[in-house]
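explain this:
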Amino acid sequence: MIIYGTALLAICHLLGIIIGDLIGRALGMQTNVGGVGIAMLMLIFARIYLHKSGRLCAISESGVHYWGAIYIPVVVAMAMQQNVVAALKGGPVALIAAVGSVVLCGLFVSFINRMEPKTEVEEDGK
C-alpha cells in the first residue's frame, strides 16, 4: 500500500527536529524545544503552498490531510511523556518556552484559519 504525503511529512519532521534542536541550544538547553510543533506547522504551510501553486495532486493532498490529522494525537502523546516537574525545576526558561509556544501556536492557528478559502456547507433540504 502506498501512503501518499509521507515524504512531505518526513521532510517537515526532520526540519522541525533540527530547528527545535537549534532553538534549544540557543536557549542554553541540550534538548529539542518545540521541534514536533514546528514540524506540524511546516506541514500545514507546505500543504497550503503546494495546493495554491497547483503542485499537489488530489491523492497526495488526501495523504497529507491524513498525516496532518494523525500528527496531532502523536504530538499530544509525546507531550504527555515529558516530565513537567523536572522542566519547571530547570528554571524559568522552560515556563517561558511553554507559555510562548502556546501563545504562538494560537496565533498561527488563527492565521492559518484565515488563509484557508471559505467553503459553503451544502444543505440537504431539511
In short: The first helix runs from residue 6 to 26. Residues 6-82 form one domain. The chain has a mean pLDDT of 80.
